[in-house]
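Supplementary material to the annual report.
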Amino acid sequence: MIIQNDWKKYLIVFFITAALFLSAFYVTNYFYNNKIDQLKNIQDNISIDILSSETQFSLLQELSCKDVDNSILSQEINNIADKINYSEKNFATDNTDVRYLKRYYFLLEIKDYLLMKKISERCGTKNSFILYMYSPDPTCTDCVKQEYVLSTLREKYPQLRIYSFDYNLNLSAIKALISIYKIPASVPVMVIDGKNYTGFKTVEEVENIIPKLKESFKLQEMKPWEKNVQQSS
Amino acid sequence: MASIPDLIFYILIFLSVYVQVFFFVTFLENRKRIVFKNGKTELEFYPTVTIIVPCFNEEQTVSQTINSLFDLNYPKEKVKIFLIDDGSTDNTLSLMKSFEGCFNVFIFHKENGGKHTAINLGLKNVETEFIACLDADSFVHPQALVRMMKCFLENEDIMAVIPATVIHNPKNFIQSIQKIEYFGAIFTKKMLGLSNGLHVTPGTLPIYKKEVFDKLGGFRKAHNVEDGEIALRMHQHNLRIEYCHDAYVYTVPPDSLYKLYKQRLRWGYGFMKNLIDYKHLLFRPKFGALSLLTLPSGIISMFSMVLLFIFFISTFINFFIEKIVKVQAVGLNGMFHLQKFDWFYFDIRGISLILVVCSILAVFTILVGRKMVEDRFQPSFYIILYIITYTVIAPVWFLKAIYNVIVSERPNWR
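Predicted assembly:
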């Protein structure tokens, strides 16, 4: 018996399999681009928010602090932090899109930080700030743990503004921050009220460092008439 | 740039999908040829067949096996039954003797020497043109023999025909998932049969032309998988093996995880050892689909399963570690804290999609296999349980089989 190999069939099957693979990677790429676009949109929104806040702040020179609309201050900055973090972990490490977005995000954070500080000083708003320096290197397990703590704090205290920065990223604005606050390289490091806190800190430890967090939390939990009594006293 | 392990992973997954697509295309090509015979099959001419039943400690099932042979829809005078006791230490021989005197039943007894020696004793005494072998834990459908003989009569090139092996009356979870596995195997073997790529003639009533043994000699020990070795030897001599999908033989599968592990370890070890012995058959176009598809896909599927196992285990471990770190960081609340749903975090990767396609093809394979046996295209919850269970347990026996081949440690028969 002579065996006849159906080479045409082997070839067709190869092309079908290749087409399946290409389709799968096309779909992946489509969703990936979609996510990057989503990130870009959020960043654009933040940028507009900051510009709007800056304009409002300039106007503040002529207006009283009660006209400051707290709601306009970008709340999306916390939202995007988790997404940037996720993209950094799940997309390819040498991904230029994510790297670009990360740099842009850090700059927006610094702008937001400066503006919020000015508003806080001028109007005495109850915002608290944490500058957080980390390393995306997975060997920095304390950084991973610290991120969980900060995410928990973000959810618990919406008025807490946390700005995280990749310590090793070659960005002149970050270098400037490091030099101004004399931040050591032993990440994770948190800068709270100009003071450096090195190493992992639990939720309770951070709460103890910023006592006004708990106070504001109590205020949030109070009924409106209780708030009025407290504020008038 | 993808790393080398990533590249190997993608190549193996590509080849695994290739094999599944090959079967799917073969099915589409031949779907009109795959007919199901429900009623009685009649032949113009009934050749004489000898059925050899080698037995070793099969007292639980041997009587039922022999009775199923008596019920075959085939002229009684055209069937000879050789019952061969391979030195059983239980009641098997006396049960066999209870059939002494039945028409065309011949009983042989020998010292224990392994299944291949028992069949070879039968082969020495065979005078018929066709020879079948039947394990003593299997029962034949009344139409099985006649439908298989029809295959021989329709195509003179065919030298052996194997039936569809179906799990008999599953009694527990392990047997139920094997039933699903066997449905998948029926589809796969049918496609391999159509491509002339069958690599095994299992002990559930394969029928050979006598000239196969005249040409090739008898069975060999072949690392305890003599049914795999004889198939490879037949391919080496370009002797065609056909698959008869509507000839059903029922078998009793291992009823515990440990017995299943032992059986698959023996199969995996035997397959690899025989593959080493017959490595000259690999990638040689003159040996057809066996050489280009079946044997390479056997190797690919083993390594793919092991890789998938590592992939799933590492995903699970990473998830577990992440949870532990979270608990360490923010306490038990972190463990049960669910993130707000956002499509952004829905992970869609190429490899996940490919694995979904693989799973769909696997489910299709099982459903068509079931249709071939039970004439119904009905999904079952056991399909999902089968896929999950085998993804976890199959790599264990494959890894152990690979280890045994490397250190040349032969697994026990039972």
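The radius of gyration of chain A is 24 Å.
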